[in-house]
Automatic annotation (TrEMBL):
Protein known as: Ferrichrome ABC transporter substrate-binding protein
Keyword terms of this UniProt record: Signal, Transport
PROSITE patterns: FE_B12_PBP (PS50983), PROKAR_LIPOPROTEIN (PS51257)
GO cellular component, one term: outer membrane-bounded periplasmic space
Pfam families the UniProt entry points to: Peripla_BP_2
Main localization (coarse): other
Chaperone recorded as keyword: no
Signal peptide from the UniProt entry: 1-18
Coiled-coil segments: none
Residues of the Fe/B12 periplasmic-binding domain: 54-314
Keyword check for Transport: yes
InterPro entries recorded: ABC_transptr_periplasmic_BD, Bact_iron-sidero_bind
Subcellular location: Cell envelope
């Protein structure tokens, strides 16, 4: 009987130790979740919570959603993104442009990400605030932006998961072109937008499908496009400056209000002599799908859109 009692007490003691061990592990996990990590931002070293429940982010809501973050607010420009999944979009509120501090405070975010240095002091009264610079080389393209924000959010696994799915989709969509005899790796492109009676040309890193064409489908940049990519990302041009445009394909978008401008452009003798125009390789793209939307989710969603447009235009 004494032996049994001793064994019973020993068992209870072991269970007690195990419980203490589990409680200790849980405490450590909870401590880790409620801790912070340091991130080097434009406004200094920021202690960012390891566990982020709510984020308000200017411009880069697409990147944050792609990395599995719960975005509850963004600026008006990013709010218009038609490519975000419905379940994510339904949680996001329009914070205005610039983002309104009172509206942000109502959402009680854990983190605010902004490009507006003049608002940092106001936002810091609400939550930890990270200032980013749109022109930072660390934000130059889809991959670098995902890397940047994956470090900010500690979301490396989500980044790898997204890129794996993206590359699979890109491979499938590129194959649709190569199957029709179009080899993107041997074709150069240029991006043009008509807006308010002006003509703009874009690089690969200023939305308008640039990353979809270059990073996704593997097209090469024309020398003119490369110069813009390496510069400010966009440039106002005129018809005469496009006369010797070397691109094999021109991708053009414009709002419906500028349709007359496009029709006039197509009748311009200078335009008619451009290489891609003569080869019937001018591809029209829906302005509402590509304007300002250059995040990773938008880039992926636009892959089949661009392939369909190319095949339709070239009648392949």
């Amino acid at each position: 009987m004494k032996k049994f009692t001793s064994l019973l007490l020993a068992g209870v003691a072991i269970l007690g130790l195990a419980a203490c061990s589990n409680n200790s592990s849980s405490s450590k996990d909870e401590k880790k979740d409620t801790g912070t990590h340091k991130f080097e931002a434009k406004n200094g070293t920021i202690d960012i919570p390891n566990k982020l429940d709510k984020i308000v982010i200017q411009n880069y809501s697409d990147e944050a959603v792609a990395l599995g973050q719960n975005v509850v607010g963004t600026d008006s420009w990013s709010f218009a993104n038609p490519h975000l999944p419905k379940e994510a979009k339904d949680k996001i509120k329009d914070m205005g442009a610039p983002m309104n501090a009172e509206k942000i405070a109502e959402e009680k975010p854990d983190l605010i990400v902004t490009m507006d240095k003049d608002q940092v002091a106001n936002y810091e009264k609400i939550a930890k605030t990270v200032l980013v610079d749109y022109n930072d080389k660390a934000l130059k393209d889809m991959d670098s932006r995902l890397e940047y924000f994956a470090k900010m959010f500690q979301a490396e696994d989500k980044k790898k998961e997204f890129l794996k799915a993206f590359d699979a989709t890109a491979k499938k969509e590129t194959a649709r072109l190569t199957d029709k005899g179009i080899d993107p790796s041997k074709s150069t492109v240029a991006i043009i937008e008509l807006n308010a009676n002006k003509i703009y040309s874009y690089g690969d890193n200023f939305a308008r499908g640039g990353q979809t064409l270059i990073r996704g489908l593997g097209f090469e940049q024309s020398k003119e496009m490369k110069e813009i990519t390496d510069g400010d990302g966009w440039k106002e041009v005129n018809v005469e400056s496009l006369a010797n445009l070397s691109a094999d394909y021109i991708f053009i978008d414009y709002p419906e209000t500028d349709k007359a401008q496009y029709e006039a452009l197509t009748k311009n003798p200078v335009w008619q002599k451009i290489k891609a125009v003569q080869d019937k390789k001018v591809v029209q793209i829906d302005y509402n799908q590509v304007y300002y939307f250059g995040g990773p989710i938008a880039t992926e969603k636009l892959l089949p859109v661009y392939v369909d447009a190319i095949l339709d235009q070239t009648k392949k």
